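Sharing a chain and its predicted structure for anyone who wants a worked example. Both blocks are below, sequence first, C-alpha cells second.
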Amino acid sequence: MRRICVVVLALSIALVGAGRPAPPKASPTPKPVPSAAPTPAVPVIVVYPFSGTGDIKSDTGLKAAQLFEQQIRQAGGVTVVDGSAGVARTNFPTDATKQHADYYLSGYMTVLGDAVALVEQLVSVQSGTIVFSNTAQIQNFNDAAAQAQAVHDAILADQKRFTGALNDQPAASASTPTPLPNSQVNIGGLFKHKARATAAPKATPVQKPAKGIFVVRITGNVGATDLTAGTQTLSSALDRHYLVKMADAAAGGASKNADKICGSQRDNTIATGDVTTSSVKHGFFSKTQYAFTLHVYTCFGAQLAQSSGTGSSLGDAITAAVQSYASAHPTNS
C-alpha cells in the first residue's frame, strides 16, 4: 500500500510539471533604421535683363541676362525661370514672387573708359535683402560668364547658410564656365562706338570697418531708370569700402528720416546723393556731363560729410564722389 501511494504521488508531481507552459524565448531587439535625410529644395532664380546707360547698345542688357541664365543652368543645382516680359524694375519683387522664385538678379551696364562696368545684385525674394552684389569691369564674354558663375555660387552659399550646412561642403562650385563662341572678342562690340581693348585692373581686397552705411535712393534731374541705376552704382561703389545695406526713405529725405532708417543700429551712417547734368561742348558736338554730390549723415540726422564727382557717365561721377569720401573717411566716421 505504501508503494502505491509513492507511485501515485510521483505521477501527480510529473503531471503538474508537464502542465506548466515553457518560459518564452527572448526576441532580439530590431535595429533602428535611420530615416532618409530630406532632400533640400533646389533654389529658383529669375534673371531680368540688365539696363544699359551711356553708349551701351539697347539689346546688350537682354543678351547679358541670357548669358547669365545659360551659365547658371550649366553650373547645376539652381533652377532658372523666365520673368514676365517687359516687367518694370520696381515690379521685379512682385513678378519674382509670381514665378515662385527664391532669388532674382538685376543690374546694369555702363561704359567705363574702354571697358564695361557690370553691376549685379542678387536679391532674396522672401526677405527683400541683397544677398550678393558686385561690380566688375569686363572685357569679353568670358569675363561676363565668370560673373554668372559667382552669382551661382552665391546662391548655393546662401542656401547652405539658411539650412545651417555651410560647413558641410565647400561653398564655391567646382564647375568652370564653358567658354562661349567668340568669347574672347573684346567687349567693345557692345558699344555704340568702337572702343579700344585695355586690360581690366584687378580688384584689391579691402578690410571693411565695423561701421556700416545705409544707402537711400538718390535724386536728381535724370529719369527714374537712371536714378535706380545710379542708386545701385552708389551701393556697389560704397560696398568696395564699407558694409552696405539698402534702405527706404519716406518723404522728407534721408536726414529727416535718419532715426527710422537706422532703428537700433545707431552706430551706422546714411548715404544718398543728388545728380545734375549739363551740356558741354565737345568739338563740333555737345555731350552730357554728369555731376554727383554724395551726402553722408549720422543716424541722428546731422550731415557727416559731403563729396562731389563728375564724369561723362553717371557711374563715373558717382564712383569719383565715393572714392573722395572713402579717402577722407576710411573708417566711415
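Comments welcome. The chain is about 30% helix and 25% strand.
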